[in-house]
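Re: the 306-residue chain
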Amino acid sequence: MQIITDILQYDKKPCAATIGSFDGVHKGHLSMLGELRIAAAKKNLPLMVVTFATHPRRLFNSDTAPFMLTPVSDKIKKLEAAGVDICVLLDFNSEMASMSAMQFMREVLVEHLGVKLLAVGYDHHFGKPVPGEGIDQYITYGKELGVEVFGTRPFIVDNMAVSSSAVRRALSSGDVGLAASLLGRNYSLSGSVVHGAGIGRVLGFPTANISLADEWLMLPLDGVYETVVVIDDATYQGVMNIGVKPTVSGKERTLEVHIIGFEGDIYGGDITVQFVRRLRGEQNFDNINALRFQIEVDIARVKRGI
């Protein structure tokens, strides 16, 4: 897959494209890319995705809580796996945010990228917001610019249209099972293993403390989760706690995972945690022994699949 980071240096050629943040590269995105791939093949055009190096939401509200579903590097890998030929990473800034949809289509999509066929998601809008502007207007603009524009259908899972926002809502409620259904895979977080307070080891259940690779990645609702842990391409069952550990700390939010059956030193190494299900919320136990017993129960549930 060709990756374009400077459209001014790009030698444009006719292509079929779609535009969006593609955060999560979920089932809805994959369905849309499938529709576009078929349409592009009929016209013998390469498939292009126009996306952003930085999510537009961060420009408009830098104080927002972490919300990203995938780092840019993972998004690129997933787009390539989906059969995208060209990925354009735009540097979204205030100048671009001020462009009208017509201006964006003319100056970016047509003049710099050579778009001849444009797919627009069923709920997607681009350019400076204009009340009532949508796919009908984009089709009209396309006719003026020599671009065929068509809208794609929503992809439905569990009677809901799949979207990045729907995935975020599922994660914010701790429903990682629903998030997986919408994404087409378990939601995951990656980072490096760092030293913690060592409380897990004292309890008899050593944990890997994770420093996220991207501070903007969204965390599921605080609680205890069954996970799959990936270390150097090997997978293990795990029990992960997200929260402030009220029984022993009650202050800083941490990500800690007990890796079942793993022995070894992984400090400083890379780790990926895939969320399978939420076992329970965080609890403030009366004493350390009560906490230790509950951890034993959590681990037993994961091992036995109950």
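The chain has ten helices and 14 strands.
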